[in-house]
Amino acid sequence: MEAAGQQRIVRAEDVAHMGITEILRHAFYIHSQYRALVRDLKRSPPALAIFIDFPDVNFRLAMHCKRLGVPVLWFVSPQLWAWKRRRLRWVQRFVDRMLVIFPFEAPFYRARNVNAEFVGHPLAAVPLPTITREAYAIEHGLDAAKQWIALLPGSREKELDANLSEIVGAAAILGTTYEYVVPVASTITRNAMEDALLLAVDFPVKNPAFSGDFHLVPDAREALHHARASIVASGTATVQALTIGNPFVVVYRVSRLTYSILKRLVRYPAEIPAQPDADGNLPIAMPNLIAGRRIVPEFLNDRFTAQNLAAALDPLLADTPTRAQMIADLAEARTKLLPTPTSDPIQRVCDAAEALLESTPAHVAQNQAANV
After folding, report:
1. In order of start, what are the domains of the chain with their CATH numbers?
2. Which of 57, 199, 276, 372 is most buried when burial is the number of CB atoms within 10 A of its CB?
3. pLDDT in tens, 6-17
């Protein structure tokens, strides 16, 4: 957006934190950046506000927009269908159009008097990578004769700290039969990933001879496309793996306090048929919520161990019924991510934005035209 000419007031990657204790540690800085956004909004009200997820800031900005007469279009719904459902009243009061990317979200909102439309998930409309396995191996120094496992520990350095040691431990158990492809998210430097991997390899593992054959790459979709199977941290990367069709397991770790609180708070509405596991945990991986049943294993906090990961990956690496069933389940879930096979989610967002601009009262548009 900045490269396209937009004025950046706050760096979103500097204020993006997950978990209760994690957010509390950065609360002062986050609030200072929020105040900067409000000052700019009041100084130069736009003709239209397009908010993308990030509810803790965007709900409050939407309130200011309404006071200024700025229509609000929200793209990518906050997950208030999972927890903090009382925030629904903010949507009902301050959001003119809610554009959602998961199929169960539109009926959830419509049943609660919100003007919502399922536009589809942008990742589902992206073509599969075209680079061949041979070319990919040459480009990244991989052995094409070996199977590759993709490791996606997260897109924040805190996630690397929390997730990487057990992921590397699983790789150590699986051993040097495989090579390991590690995409580096744009929010993490290559040096930070290299340092995190060095620390994780030094962490006691089940295979002391394992030194790690890790190949850092820039693109997650290409890595998932060519990997035999993957370990993926919960988040958008799980939808990437779903749309690619790569068999995978989901992992995530937060503080014990955060986990305990969220386990009590998360409750899904009737629109999401989710059943708890043997430990009483509801699914959190988006592919499982999209499918309406558990199609990929989830390993959270105490169950997130190197041994559990290696055991779950093993049947996905060979030509087993488990692997075949997961591939079929992922393909079925992927078809649910677009309203029609030819849908273009981003174009539908653009159409909705233009429609809102056209419906803006003339006096508001005139006052704000100079600020668009």
Report:
1. 45-120+341-371 (3.40.50), 133-337 (3.40.50.2000)
2. 57
3. 888 888 777 776
